Amino acid sequence: MPGGGRRSTDWRLAAPLLEAAGLRTVAVDSPDLGSWSWAGAVESVGEAINDHGLEHPAVAGHSLGGIVAALWASEHPECPLAVNLDGHTNPTGPFDGVDPVGAEHTMRAFLAEQTAGDPEMTHFIAQMDALDLIAVYRAARCPLLVVSSSGSDLSAMLPPAVSVAFDAYVRGFARELMTAAAQTPLLSLADLATGHDMHLEAPYEVARLILGRLSSSHHPSP
């Protein structure tokens, strides 16, 4: 699954590497963000699985698609592996090292400014805001791999006050994520020194991580 508004061709570099290892791959496009809902996104995964005649496949997604994969993991214990490649919800907390109230205000004001006058994006941001991603990770019922990018320069492109708040969010979320992984046996973490589009920047590393987790899974292969 690709990120929001992205196409299935985003997997053009990683998919052949998975196929070379003997897996069958199916890539789907991202739905229209204006009508986006988490329930609808998870349902579309099930429809794609049925349409292609797949039985208990592994599910991997990038960015928004990665969050959908994590949601799939919370509902499908028969899934051999779900993978979230750098998927995050709104950067509105938790925050480390700053006043959390001020940081949240800064981030919410920035998001509102970016989406002003755009009903589609306003709807999408509201959907993102409604999801507790850490709770989703803790609810995993099948092996779930969360891969985070550590080479992104996004902070440097933000206004100074927003950059400070965003960096505090990155630290806070990383702390919460590590705590969740320590307490959730089915949740494992990995980092890649890439930007956000890790499946395009480091397809071999992405494929290696997926294949490695599949081979160590106690579930049947897809």
TrEMBL record:
Q: Which superkingdom?
A: Bacteria
Q: Which residues form the AB hydrolase-1 domain?
A: 2-208
Looking up Pfam families in the UniProt record yields: Abhydrolase_6
Q: What is this protein called?
A: AB hydrolase-1 domain-containing protein
Species whose genome carries this gene:
Nonomuraea maheshkhaliensis
